[in-house]
Amino acid sequence: MFVFFIALCYNTAMSCVRVKAYAKINLTLYVCGTADGNHKLDSLVASVGLCDTVIVRKRRDGRVTVKMHGAEIHGENNAVKAAELFIKEFSTCGADIEIIKRIPMGAGLGGSSADAAGVLNALARLYRVKDNERLAKLADATGSDTRYMLGGGWARLFGRGDTVKRVSGKLRVWLLLLVPEEKVSTPQCFAAFDKNGAVGGNSDEAERAVNRGDVYALAASLNNALMPAAAGLSSGVSDCAGALKGLEPLAVNMTGSGSGVYALFASRRLCVRAKRSYRGTARAYILKTR
Known about the structure:
Blueprint: E1 6-10, E2 15-26, E3 28-35, E4 38-58, E5 64-69, H1 78-90, E6 95-100, H2 111-126, H3 132-142, H4 146-151, E7 155-159, E8 163-166, E9 174-179, H5 186-196, H6 204-212, H7 215-221, E10 223-224, H8 227-233, H9 235-245, E11 251-254, E12 261-265, H10 268-277, E13 283-288
Parallel strand pairs: 3-10, 5-6
Antiparallel strand pairs: 1-2, 2-4, 3-4, 4-6, 4-7, 7-8, 9-12, 9-13, 11-12
Helix pairs in contact: 1-2, 1-3, 2-3, 5-8, 6-7, 8-9
């Protein structure tokens, strides 16, 4: 079941579809080795309420245009790639795409993958495509975790993130996310991990905590093997982690390869209070898992 909110809108010239493409948080991230030049991961992830909005409109020709609001397009763009792959695979006409950015870029929240998945979902609705497996294969071609982003929710990601195991639990947890100005390069973060990081571990206990609805057990299971490497590359990561620990959360963790660092709280009230108490310069967001 797709977690994207979908609305149809029509005018005299064309039809359009609007979707919300939600960010994700890594509750765990273990590096379990390498294969074919890629790191093998085991990560428990969840969608959160922070989202981009993707709007697609039909064209009469096969062209794709993308306009970003709140961010600039640099180099290859996953939303463009997703649209071009969709048009080729399903032999449809093109689309004019608008993306309203709210997910911070370079924060480990999967914003680029969310946009690609949002484009695929919106085009599927626009052109009445219902072949979810073919859509998933297109998602794999745009990014390692885009397949997961097609549906979102709670899941375990394995391998490069393209093997998805849905998690049945519906635990809702409150998070205070801090995003420092300084970004962390994902390739550099993995390279730093390869020098000093510990390989191994799994997300079994964290998954069991979600299935039981136990926020305290989940807090005790939070882990990100890349966090020491990211903190070594960016003082912003370590500064945010230190600030969050001073706000008395259940746990502090990093999402993706950074630079976003978050604290988990037992309730919305405690999360809101922590945000009000934060005095740093990083951008602060209150998030709830979906």
